[in-house]
């Protein structure tokens, strides 16, 4: 199945282009951090630089979804790659000549984040256009496998490259990989896309996307669950996890084991999701997130590093499988004319409260203690996932239908209310 998918010309070009750009991105993130510190930036300054990419990404995702449902998605993806290649090339050039300043890093990250906000919903909407419906799960799993493998190997390779060549060279290579991705996307065959929505102004177009989400109980309930997970579990692990490791797991070495096993589990989960279909994907996602959401409490269980490593591996697998099953059911069940907008709403919801979680995790631990905070930050998303699983519409939605909704136009609220699985 993998070979057959990669032999499909357009998917192969998309896959190898994405793999190339991600291969450049993983070391480039580390290179950016070192470059900021090398020019005299403080950890606080580095936080500002990183936030400068995140904020426009979150703010512009919904606009990106509207544009991707209105204009040719492949063209938007190429434009995004070209912009990101340019930002990394400018930053690399300034580092080479010794003229980089903190404000430049911030501007580059803002532009980069805005371009990524355009790319994400366009990619989500374009994949079903080039892959047969019955192969969507395998295609999503392949993309996830590539990303997870590069997340495991990227930081190590980046550290070696930075040591040997310097941050500027690593950022220059990232610019080249975005150029490769743009060229491969441009080489794809031109295919007329499904009928587009009637051109609307921005706000009406956004309302149409929200209507698509509201009309499907399984969809909005799951997005709310992902919002809770992103706001609670992720900050709990990334903000409080290192301190727990310092106090109870031997410090940095113990934390490295936890992070490495999680990444390895994510890679394994992508492989499993490719091989193992599920009949009720929305329900499966809710159950899988129960496993991942319990991770903060398990970290403080005192079970020992070996057991915690195994659980971290299972958590990584659960998150990766959730990603594959969820992306696939969206592509199968949401009309092509609204898919990018719905995907952007999904991504927006997932990251909406994450900054609040980052800001609140530390004060919560100070108020109730580390153990109390980690237990609470596990209990809330576990409960949210169990409530999501209890929603009848979530348990009812199936992985496939006899007729693909991608061939239809935007569904009306009346039509969606009659669908048996919503």
TrEMBL record:
Q: Where in the cell is it found?
A: Cell membrane
Pfam families (UniProt xref) = MFS_3 (PF05977)
Does the keyword Transferase belong to this entry?
no
> SUPFAM superfamilies attached here?
MFS general substrate transporter
Which keywords does UniProt give here? Cell membrane, Membrane, Transmembrane, Transmembrane helix, Transport
User: Among its keywords, does the record have NAD?
Assistant: no
Kindly provide the name given to this protein in its UniProt entry.
MFS family permease
**Species per Swiss-Prot/TrEMBL record:** Kibdelosporangium banguiense
